[in-house]
Amino acid sequence: MPRKVFSSQAYRHKVVLVSGGCSGIGRALALRFARAGARLAILDLDQAALDSLVQHLRDHLGGEALGLRCDVADADAVERAVALAVERFGGIDVLVNNAGITHRGTFAETGLGVFRKVMAVNFFGAVHCTRAALPSLLERRGQIVVLSSLTGFAPLLYRSAYNASKHAVMGLTQTAALEYFKQGIRVNAVCPGPIETPMSLHGFGSADALHAMMAQTPAGRAGQPDEVVQPVLFLLSQAASYISGQGLTVDGGYTVQ
Ligand code: NAD
Question: What's the CA gap between 32 and 61, in Å, rounded?
Fold first, then answer.
């Protein structure tokens, strides 16, 4: 078991907003924050998955959770969703910019529509959520973590739009870190390698293709969503009080092979 970087109720009375919290890494984070006592606002496109997650959090973890159906690419929808979260919980202490999509194809095969869509969700989604949550985060000296990717600095073949969106997200992380440390907000990114989630299975085409690629790496396997959770919690914790504007790679040694 990894050592915990906070006590079991470390998020009691804290409000955590997770975008894309219904699947994969976002879901693992939502469950962990709920276990730590957080009140959760979860933004996601998928209404059925939101209903089921909120029910699960209430029934099994006794957690207070608000599911907000929202496309993070839509600035107005994000403003409305964040306003509802603030109205319900009184503010936001932690923002996790996690919602994301991927694609696959050569640069030439990747149409402008795909570039625009991927940038709209992965990059502008993070911009929209950060802008909307910022007044509350400033008031509460809150923290931000962004789910970037190892492709934010080491591009993956046939993911041109995705690679570019994650580079952009790193730029946003570093710029926001520059501006807001003195006001109490640290902004960091976690940069996972391939983690076994619906997104990576879609990106690699199949579980076999994902596992075949990861078998060649130092870890010899793909990561699991839970293995991204502790690095996120570390960056949000007081243990990381002097860390801002950084990307923490979580890739089983993929980038050093
Ligand atoms: P996932 O596909 O399992 O989950 C993504 C969630 O985001 C889903 O619940 C989906 O409904 C939601 N979502 C998608 N588009 C949305 C939109 N426009 N508005 C609101 N919600 C939306 O993905 P995941 O693998 O858990 O990835 C989470 C984050 O981690 C992403 O930013 C991804 O780029 C990053 N990441 C994933 C991996 C990986 O291998 N899985 C690696 C590096 C980085």
Answer: 10
